[in-house]
Design brief:
The chain is 67% helix and 0% strand. It is mostly helical.
Length: 89
């Protein structure tokens, strides 16, 4: 890499760090503890949850997202209910 590329990347890193620091300092997420990905993965595994990805039609996905807004378990809880009802369990 050229020296100019290194300086450009350094500038981008600094700008990104400042943007994230401003969001935290500005009161974004006060009172909420943010769980990092590793911790969330560990909690999910302890609860017996496994990742399950699939492709859905856009209209169906939008409909599910709308329903998930009002669901107490969010999208994961809604999908669990829908699949359980669909399988007849």
């Amino acid at each position: 890499m050229k020296k100019t590329d290194l300086e450009k990347n350094k500038g981008l890193k600094i700008a990104n760090d400042m943007k994230h620091a401003a969001a935290v300092r500005g009161g974004g997420g006060q009172g909420e503890k943010v769980v990092d990905r590793r911790e969330q993965r560990r909690l999910d595994q302890a609860a017996g949850l496994v990742p399950f990805a699939c492709k859905l039609d856009g209209k169906l996905a939008a409909r599910l997202q709308e329903l998930a807004k009002d669901h107490p378990g969010g999208i994961n809880g809604l999908m669990g209910e829908v699949v359980t009802k669909g399988l007849g369990d």
